Amino acid sequence: MAFTNVGPLVYLAPGETAFWNFSYGDDHGPQLAEADVKTPNLGAVHQADHQRKRKDNNEVVTYFVDIHNLGAGGCFHNLQGGGMS
């Protein structure tokens, strides 16, 4: 299941990192998340890495991703992604 435009808008200046997590009440399998980059973009290049997953004893699954701005300028983003098929 794909998702887009999820979560609050976050501004990343050059060199900054945003740390994201999102949860489900059950296991949705592998989920890939990346930046849903918004315009105007003043030269930002967002990189998603450190994709992680935690499953609690109550079956709640939380996914984690770090978004880094490697570009020369900033812009806003939130998340997009989905499961692998």
Detail the topology: elements first, then pairings.
Blueprint: E1 2-12, E2 17-24, E3 31-37, E4 46-55, E5 61-69, E6 75-83
Antiparallel strand pairs: 1-6, 2-5, 3-6, 4-5
Protein architecture, described:
There is one protein chain. The chain is mostly beta strands and about 80 residues long. About 0% of the residues lie in helices and about 65% in strands. It has no helices and six strands. It has strands spanning about 1-10, 15-25, 30-35, 45-55, 60-70, 75-85. The strands form two sheets. Strands 1-6-3 form a three-stranded antiparallel β-sheet, with no helix packed on it. It has a three-stranded antiparallel β-sheet with strand order 2-5-4, with no helix packed on it. Strand 4 (about 45-55) and strand 5 form a beta hairpin. It is elongated and about 40 Å long.
Q: How many helices does DSSP assign?
A: 0
Poorly predicted segments: none
Backbone shape: elongated
The chain-level mean pLDDT equals 96
Number of strands: 6
What class, by secondary structure content?
mainly beta
From the N-terminal CA to the C-terminal CA, the straight-line distance is 9 Å
Biggest sheet, spatial arrangement of strands: 1-6-3
Binned strand content: over 45%
